């Protein structure tokens, strides 16, 4: 699902997230960029307190050089992600060194300006970001080591397989040596193991084997600054408190969902002896990472007599193709009055896994190459409803790229990373409604009744609500590793302590410090910040409510579909076009009227479900908690 998605965040080579991951063509070389114009440029010392002078330098001197560097870096990483070879990896290291040199030079120049007395908050924001070195603070040898390590972890994740025959008798399943494995039994995570966890017959022993085997072949082998705003007095401690307050808002509904699903698992798997008051073993969730619970819908649905809200079979019956899925998403955006996809998008994107034997990073992501119209998606797409929704998520990133393309390079980014993740999901909240699926002709005989509505909210909760604690702990864990609160002798136990506390989940088999289970997740291996997803899952409901109001929707929030509403599209565009030229609270206010992240619209969306789950859990004698 969309939670695995990301975008290549190299805006402002100022902060070039040197190891953020993205995609591009396969040449295997980095094109050098001449940065001497920045070194040769004469700075008039009498104007170093002028915000207009700084803006002029950004526009006329930095922008052309920085844009060329961003393009070259994107190409190098695209080459690597679409063709994992030693030569292409070497190009990413070369590109990282070059971009780090530029970052250091820009930071040195930006520091010469004194804008402390200026009232131009936009230029003060740009200067503050320009002075931040990030990974460029490392010396060349350390930077090479960092990039090599991250590339290596990503390569392990993307190319790893386990030896497994899903059709074998459960009693014969054992951890086989993949080096002596029949080729037909070597299964990668995407799509084979993901599909097994999703569609298996729920044989607990097989699931336990796959859960452990994937972690054996993957896991063993600075990020908060963009959310703070010193000009507005919003500090790092304010941000952390805001996150905790949001979690406390959400915790009650998650507890009810956990208790309900736990009862369903107890009834389905009596031989597993699950405790009615305890945590849930991870391998029984139906997802390799326990981050989304939608794969349990076939036996947890509130009203089983109603049809499952999964239109995969109907898509296949109607001969949907991957191209049609992408064009469908584009059409939804166009009918909101948003921008169509440029021709280059259709020419250069990678929509399906190559059949030429190349090793690629299948993890879906969106890319901005900082050239007119050059935006792309890399995704190993299959024809199913999950991927249809993921496409809308990735196309949301692309629309954001297109909307802020006219901003200065330093501002060609989302208001914060959570905003970038939220855009596509906001659109998908409409696309996933029974109303919209019926309008597309994919959902037949849809009944607008209470039971169908509750089923829809429940299936959405298995995706959205179940995901929130997972998204919260990913970076809470890493913050504590970075600070030293979690020591090197407790990297795995520290992870599982968080999983138990926030998710109510325990490992599928006993774990030790010889294991490294966080490394079984792509974003850990690829060094990608994850709090963006927690934030996006909250603010997408704020965005959704604002767009629904603009569209004139009347009725419960969960029934809203903004399809073809030009007013909703105009409101969304007004925020997207800002890029990061304004602080995120300003961008938030532009679309919602509020400067605060708040879970209230999310709770409003799910309120009827919350009431129902509470009543059902009490009736069954189940209490939230573990």
Summarize the structure.
It is built from 22 helices and seven strands.
Number of strands: 7
Assembly context of the chains: single chain
Described by the principal axes of the CA atoms, the overall outline is globular
Overall mean confidence score, pLDDT:
86
Helix content estimate: 40-55%
In this structure, how is the largest beta sheet organized? Answer: 3 strands, mixed
> How many DSSP helices?
22
**Could you state the order of secondary-structure elements as H and E?**
EHHHHHEEHHHEHHHHEEHHHHHEHHHHH
Signal peptide: 1-28
Binding site for Zn(2+) 2: 393, 397, 421
EC number: 3.4.-.-
Binding site for chloride: 234, 532
Description:
- With 626 residues, the protein is mainly alpha-helical.
- It has two domains: 2-156, no CATH class; 236-337 and 405-619, no CATH class.
- The chain contains 22 helices and seven strands.
- It has helices at residues 36-40, 51-82, 86-110, 121-130, 140-159, 189-199, 204-217, 236-268, 297-300, 312-317, 322-334, 343-348, 385-403, 417-431, 434-439, 450-483, 491-503, 522-525, 531-551, 566-576, 584-592, 600-619, and strands spanning 6-7, 161-163, 186-188, 280-281, 365-368, 375-378, 505-506.
- The strands form three sheets. It has a three-stranded mixed β-sheet with strand order 1-5-6.
- A hairpin with a 6-residue loop joins strand 5 (365-368) and strand 6.
- Helix 14 packs across helix 19 (531-551), helix 16 (450-483) packs antiparallel against helix 17 (491-503) and helix 16 (450-483) packs antiparallel against helix 19 (531-551).
- The radius of gyration is 24 Å and the shape is globular.
- The relative contact order is 0.13.
- Mean pLDDT is 86; it is low at 10-27.
- This is Angiotensin-converting enzyme.
- Its EC number is 3.4.-.-.
- One of its GO terms (cellular component) is plasma membrane.
- Zn(2+) 1 binds at residues 393, 397, 421.
- Zn(2+) 2 binds at residues 393, 397, 421.
């Amino acid at each position: 699902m969309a939670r695995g998605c990301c975008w290549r965040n190299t805006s402002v080579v100022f902060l070039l997230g040197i190891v953020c991951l993205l995609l591009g063509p396969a040449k295997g070389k980095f094109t050098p960029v001449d940065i001497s114009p920045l070194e040769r440029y004469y700075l008039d010392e009498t104007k170093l307190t002028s915000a207009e002078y700084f803006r002029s330098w950004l526009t006329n001197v930095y922008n052309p050089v920085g844009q060329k560097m961003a393009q070259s870096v994107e190409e190098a990483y695209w080459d690597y992600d679409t063709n994992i070879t030693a030569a292409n990896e070497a190009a990413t290291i070369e590109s990282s060194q070059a971009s780090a040199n530029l970052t250091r030079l820009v930071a040195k120049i930006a520091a010469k300006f004194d804008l402390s007395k200026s009232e131009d908050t936009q230029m003060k924001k740009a200067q503050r970001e320009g002075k931040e070195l990030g990974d460029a603070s490392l010396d060349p040898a350390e930077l090479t080591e960092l990039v090599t390590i991250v590339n290596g972890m990503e390569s392990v994740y993307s190319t790893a397989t386990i030896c497994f025959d899903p059709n074998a008798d459960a009693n014969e399943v054992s951890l086989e040596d993949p080096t002596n494995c029949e080729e037909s039994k070597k299964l990668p995570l995407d799509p084979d193991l993901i599909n097994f966890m999703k569609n298996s017959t729920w044989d607990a022993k097989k699931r336990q084997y796959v859960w452990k085997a994937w972690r054996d072949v993957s896991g063993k082998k600075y990020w908060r600054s963009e959310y703070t705003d010193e000009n507005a007095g919003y500090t790092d401690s304010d941000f952390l408190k805001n996150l905790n307050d949001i979690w406390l808002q959400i915790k009650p509904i998650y507890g009810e969902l956990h208790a309900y699903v736990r009862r369903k698992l107890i009834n389905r798997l009596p031989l597993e002896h699950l405790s009615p008051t305890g945590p849930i073993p991870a391998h029984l969730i139906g997802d390799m990472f326990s981050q989304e619970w939608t794969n349990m819908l076939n036996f947890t649905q509130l009203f089983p007599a109603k049809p499952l809200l999964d239109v995969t079979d109907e898509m296949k019956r109607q001969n949907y193709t991957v191209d049609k899925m992408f064009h469908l998403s584009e059409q939804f955006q166009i009918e909101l009055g948003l921008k169509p996809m440029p021709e280059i998008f259709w020419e250069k994107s990678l929509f399906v896994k190559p059949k030429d034997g190349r090793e690629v990073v299948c993890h879906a992501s969106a890319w901005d190459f900082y050239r007119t119209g050059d935006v792309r998606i890399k995704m190993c797409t299959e024809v199913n409803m999950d991927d249809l929704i993921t496409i809308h998520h990735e196309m949301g990133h692309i629309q954001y790229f297109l909307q802020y393309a006219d901003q200065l390079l330093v501002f060609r980014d989302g208001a914060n990373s959570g905003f970038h993740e939220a855009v596509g999901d906001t659109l998908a909240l409409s696309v996933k409604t029974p109303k919209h699926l019926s309008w597309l002709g994919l959902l037949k005989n849809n009944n607008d009744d209470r039971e169908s509505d509750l089923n829809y909210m429940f299936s959405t909760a298995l995706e959205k609500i179940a995901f929130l604690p997972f998204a919260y702990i990913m970076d809470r864990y890493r913050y504590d590793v970075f600070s030293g609160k979690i020591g090197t002798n407790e990297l795995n136990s520290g992870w599982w302590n968080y999983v138990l506390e926030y998710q109510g989940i325990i490992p599928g088999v006993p774990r030790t410090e010889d294991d490294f289970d966080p490394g079984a997740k792509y974003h850990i291996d690829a060094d990608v910040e994850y709090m963006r997803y927690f934030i996006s899952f909250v603010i997408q409901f704020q965005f959704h409510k604002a767009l629904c109001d603009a569209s004139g929707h009347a009725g419960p929030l969960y029934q809203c579909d903004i399809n073809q509403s030009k007013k909703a599209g105009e409101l969304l565009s007004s925020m997207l076009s800002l890029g990061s030229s304004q602080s995120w609270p300003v961008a938030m206010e532009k679309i919602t009227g509020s400067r605060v992240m708040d879970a209230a619209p999310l709770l409003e969306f799910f309120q009827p479900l919350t009431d129902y789950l509470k009543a059902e859990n009490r009736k069954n004698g189940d209490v939230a908690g573990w």
